[in-house]
Amino acid sequence: MKIKLLILSFLLSSSVAIAQVVANQVDDFEDNTPQGWTIGSSTLAGILITTPADGGPDGAGDGYFSYTTTGSSNGGGSKCLIFSRNAQWSGDFIGQGVVAVKMDVRATSGDINLRIGLADQDSNSFPVTQMVTTNPVVITAGSGWQEVTIPIQPSDFTVLPGGSGLTAAQVLASVVEMRILSNPSASWIGESGLRVMDLNDITASTTLSTNDVVAFDEFSISPNPATSKLNVYLPQNAKNTTISVYDVLGKKVYSKSIDALSSTSVDVSNWNSGVYIIRISSDNSTQTKRFVKQ
């Protein structure tokens, strides 16, 4: 009996050890399963999530993960959001030296504002402190596979209100749930609308290279509200920058590429009054702000 109990104890401890994040682990979907990634509706997960055996970044024979939202504004499968809970993406990210999540991403329908979300747990294993990466990485629909690196050090996160008050570092050391989602705003919930998000080679990286996506200093705008001109002040490390402005319906009303300038002005005198979203995209990152045209 003692031998059996020892064996059972070893098996249980081994299963717990396996269900923890490990430095440089990779979800490559070559076994044609979701490898623990799912959505809120277990019924719809088997319909909206597929794992094609071909068509990944390496072409024929390269399997990948694909999630297609329903296109509805609410209900199961309506949000561009997948998660892994109490599985290989839980545990102590800091202790394992994981500083970034690397992955290949493709948006085949609808732009994706990519973020990583992490949460800890309470005594009942429910997430209580939630946080998401502050700066989204924009993947434009139809642009093909993109190799993305999202830093996940404490300074890269926005801790969302309403939690237990843990710091980003404390959450990183005790993760129970990881999310990959699309939302232009820092939110625990993915955005609605029809989107197809393809993923491959999700990697717990211990390094950042010079080509990785890193956060850069925030840009600023003035005046806000604006009547005739909106001045845009860019951070010094912004290179190959594109300024895009959208109305509240998501229609692009302005776009301009800028090289090596610290500031520029946008003529808004003929625009309709209302709220607009300005997006600054550069080699380093993407940020958005709102302004009012009077």
The biggest sheet amounts to: 6 strands, antiparallel
Principal-axes geometry comes out as globular
SSE sequence, one letter per element: HEHEEEEEEEEEHEEEEEEEEE
- Summed over residues and divided by their number, the pLDDT gives a mean of 84
User: How many strands appear in the DSSP assignment?
Assistant: 19
User: What low-confidence regions span 5 or more consecutive residues with pLDDT below 50?
Assistant: 1-18, 210-216
Query: Number of helical segments?
Result: 3
Q: What fraction of the residues are assigned to beta strands by DSSP?
A: 35-45%
Please identify, by name, the CATH architecture of the largest domain: Sandwich
CATH superfamily of the largest domain: Galactose-binding domain-like
CATH topology of the largest domain: Jelly Rolls
Terminal residue distance: 79 Å
Number of domains: 2
- Percent helix: under 10%
Category from helices, strands and their pairing: mainly beta
From the structure above, extract its key features.
Jelly Rolls, 6-stranded antiparallel sheet, 294 residues, mainly beta, Immunoglobulin-like, disordered N terminus
